[in-house]
Design brief:
This protein is of the alpha+beta class. The protein has a domain of about 100 residues. The chain contains 4 helices and 5 strands, in the order E-H-H-E-H-E-E-E-H. The longest helix is centred in the last third of the chain and has 35 residues. About 15% of the residues are buried.
């Protein structure tokens, strides 16, 4: 089993203490959100990029709270990362993102509320028998997104054609019954 973890830097009390002293000295208010005020422990994990959020959001469509995840056993290293993240105490929740089936390359994600109602997500770990490179995952996600979009638009088109045929096949006397059918909004540019 392969495991990738996403610590930015190793943390231990001496490093956390030095970083917190500099944060205080420099007046870096925004950095205080990454430190547990009770223990002084700092968050060593990085935020997910927009590309990672897109890719893993597409390929790992199931998002289970970590404490409810039961699709497969988590490797020991992933459990250790989760325990460490919980010990830091700066995150509000933990999720495992994974495909519906077959189970492949789950991702452990932590989150905390961000500014303006935005949730900030953090990459903690991912694991699997074979971990594809990120460019490979991006290609897969783009293809799947395209296929999902085509399927959704095809369904909309089919429903619209069916409704149009129904209206075209209605006699003038039957048109009164269509008052309750809402027509889609049409916007002119």
């Amino acid at each position: 089993m392969n495991v990738e973890t996403y610590e930015v830097e190793a943390t231990h009390p001496e490093v956390d203490e030095a970083a917190n002293a500099l944060i205080e000295q420099l007046g870096l208010e925004g950095q205080k959100a990454y430190t547990n005020p009770e223990t002084g422990a700092r968050c060593p994990y990085r935020t997910m990029t927009d590309d990672e959020t897109f890719v893993y959001g597409i390929l790992c469509s199931v998002k289970a709270p970590a404490h409810k995840f039961d699709a497969e056993p988590m490797p020991l290293r992933v459990l250790q990362v989760l325990a460490h993240a919980k010990d830091i105490g700066v995150f509000e929740g933990y999720e495992v993102w994974h495909p519906a089936r077959p189970m492949k390359d789950p991702v452990l994600v932590a989150w905390m509320p961000g500014e303006q109602y935005r949730t900030t997500r953090y990459m903690l770990a991912r694991w699997g028998a074979e971990l594809d490179s990120f460019p490979t995952l991006m290609d897969k996600a783009l293809r799947q997104h395209r296929d999902n979009t085509i399927a959704a638009l095809t369904k909309i088109k089919s429903e619209a054609e069916s409704r149009l045929a129904s209206v075209l096949g209605t006699s003038d006397a039957g048109l009164a019954s269509l008052r309750s059918v809402s027509a889609p909004a049409v916007y002119w540019s």
